[in-house]
Write a structure and sequence with these properties.
The complex is a heterodimer. Chain A has a domain of about 240 residues: Amidase signature (AS) domain (Amidase signature (AS) enzymes, Alpha-Beta Complex). Chain A has 15 helices and eleven strands. In chain A, strands 1-3-2-4-6-5-10-11-9-7-8 form an eleven-stranded mixed β-sheet, sandwiched between helices. Chain B has a domain of about 40 residues: Glu-tRNAGln amidotransferase C subunit, N-terminal domain (Histone, subunit A). The two termini of chain B are about 35 Å apart. The chains are: A alpha/beta, B mainly alpha.
């Protein structure tokens, strides 16, 4: 067993016991990061990581996260380290500050080894919208890792890092976690500061962890939550995120979302979810069907709200203050040509869709109505949580699909997030854990809870994880 | 459903210069996506309030005292063109 097979919690324990050093851990992981067999990284900070490891190794006592390496989605700003958000619009861009969540983890002893590949500006479900390269699924290099945080998910499955950060707007943490056979968590909206996260849709964006164990995700989130003066939507965290220890689910009522178990869900995915529902019953949970009819309108609602917000957020990219720029004779031409040349097709599509939905004459029909459907969604989730403690569904309707399979049909790509979007619109937390295989590819189980129920989610996910004992090692990965 | 003049109008609002090919593809793709989105136009939403923020937060205030921000050098560091300590841009017609 190599150091890279250890979970982050195990790596921290090994550091505390004096069995290894941070530099040794960083070197072991950097070798895999530099080889990058799955094309997960856009930038590598080997020297910075080694320097920080030496600093931590020299400290009289280790910080909470010990000096363990981490990968960071390229949507999160890192001071002086190139941050592109997967776009040519930010090629070579070196932020002048670090995102609050990354800073908090660095202060707690996490060491950033590099920035991970993603769909351009986090818009996509396969990472194929990256302006730079395709990331490969560690379980099958002919398939996508999911997206938009595909690099962060693949790097953890490939054991290049024990954990990483992603961002989730409509499923961009949970869906790639499912497709890569690892754990991914989207916290309650507002739990983690968005300061330094390059904005896509501000009413939906949340930063969250990827890891191979539930406990590692809990540990990472524990060190990120809480109010930040730089993000007025960030929340004071009630209590503390605890490391999960539960080995049963007795007393918990689990609602199975009927609308997300029917048409459009692959049979192999459905079978794996049904098996994990039986596992939950064996663990003492009461499993009941529950109906969330508005979730069927989730995709349509999301594809008005998210593009509308993105069209506003991405107005800042004009080639003047940062990023490359195309020369022109007058200002308006410079804006239009720079944006026309440097944004990729999906980003342009969403900016157009969002601008249309907000335009005079269409606002009431699209944006205004979508905001009302969102109200129904929020109410429906609130009513559901009066009857059950957790909601269960597949994370993704399919296993990882082949590279190139959906790039010609935008709506087919959007369907990849049909199970994760309703949760995002409701603003509640959800976790995806690997629960089995379908045709040799991982299936993710999504559990959602009410706002601030992160500890309950982690405990339930931990109990299921222990019972299922899913092997997160991709079959082709050399030991 | 979306015609050429709508595409051109929206592209201008969005400050996006599209090639003629892109305009054509955009017209087809947006029309296709809007067909799916039209589901929400048929829903009964009378009396439903819009949601802008999912978790209730009161107005967030802080004392009105100065605090450090970005330095001018930092703010200009990534700019394509800097003129006399400011962002340089082409003239506006």
């Amino acid at each position: 067993m190599s150091l890279r097979d250890l979970s982050a919690v195990e790596q921290i324990a090994a550091l505390e016991a004096g069995e290894t050093t941070s530099l040794e851990l960083v070197d072991a992981h950097l070798a895999a990061v530099e080889a990058d067999d799955v094309e997960a990284f856009l930038a590598i900070d080997a020297e910075g990581a080694r320097a920080r490891a030496r600093e931590i190794d020299a400290m009289p006592s280790r910080p909470a996260l010990g000096g363990v390496p981490i990968g960071i989605k390229d949507a999160l700003s890192t001071r002086d380290v190139v941050t592109t958000s997967g776009s040519r619009m930010l090629e070579g861009f070196r932020p002048v500050y670090t995102a609050t969540c990354v800073q908090r983890l660095q202060d707690a002893g996490a060491i950033v080894v590099g920035k991970t590949n993603m769909d351009e500006f986090a818009m996509g479900s396969s990472t194929e919208n990256s302006a730079y390269k395709n990331t490969l699924n560690p379980w099958d290099h002919g398939r996508v890792p999911g997206g938009s945080s595909g690099g962060s998910a693949a790097s953890v499955a490939q054991r290049q890092v024990p954990w990483s950060l992603g961002s989730d707007t409509g499923g961009s943490i949970r869906q790639p976690a499912a497709l890569c056979g690892i754990v991914g968590m989207k916290p309650t909206y507002g739990a983690v500061s968005r300061y330094g996260l390059i904005a896509f849709a501000s009413s939906l964006d949340q930063v969250g962890p990827f890891s191979r164990t539930v406990a590692d995700s809990a540990l990472l989130l524990k060190h990120m939550v809480g109010r930040d003066p730089m993000d007025s939507t960030s929340l004071d965290w009630p209590g503390e995120i605890a490391l999960p220890t539960a080995t049963d689910m007795s007393g918990l009522r689990v609602g199975v979302v009927e609308e997300l178990m029917g048409e459009g869900i692959e049979p192999g995915v459905k079978a794996a979810i049904e098996a994990s529902l039986r596992t939950m019953e064996d663990l003492g949970a009461t499993v009941v069907p529950i109906s969330l009819p508005t979730s069927l309108s989730g995709l349509a609602t999301y594809y008005v709200l998210a593009p509308a917000e993105c069209s506003s957020n991405l107005a800042r990219f004009d080639g003047i203050r940062y990023g490359p720029s195309v020369d022109a004779d007058n200002l308006l031409d410079q804006y239009e040509i720079t944006r026309g040349d440097l944004f990729g097709p999906e980003v342009k599509r969403r900016i157009m869709l969002g601008t249309f939905a907000l335009a005079s004459g269409y606002y009431d029909q699209y944006y205004g109505r979508a905001q009302k459907v969102r109200t129904l969604m929020v109410q429906e989730f609130a009513q559901a949580f009066e009857q059950v403690d957790l909601l269960a569904s597949p994370t993704s309707p399919s296993v990882a699909f082949p590279l190139g399979d959906r790039t010609a049909d935008p709506y087919a790509m959007y369907l990849a997030d049909v199970c994760t979007i309703p949760v995002s619109l409701a603003g509640v937390p959800a976790i995806s854990i690997p629960c089995g295989l379908s045709d040799g590819l991982p299936v993710g189980l999504q559990l959602a809870g009410p706002a601030f129920s992160e500890n309950r989610l982690f405990d339930a996910a931990h109990a299921i994880e222990q019972a299922i004992a899913f092997d997160t090692r991709p079959p082709g990965l050399a030991t | 459903m979306i015609d050429e003049s709508t595409v051109n109008h929206v592209a201008r609002l969005a400050r996006l210069r599209l090639t003629p090919d892109e305009q054509q593809v955009m017209r087809e793709e947006l029309s296709g996506i809007l067909e799916h989105i039209d589901a929400i136009r048929a829903m009964d939403l009378d009396g439903v309030e819009p949601t802008t923020h999912v978790i209730a937060v009161e107005n967030v205030l802080r004392p009105d005292v100065p605090r450090p921000g970005l330095s001018r050098d930092d703010a200009l560091r990534e700019a394509a063109d800097v003129v006399d300590g400011s962002f340089g841009v082409p003239r506006m017609d």
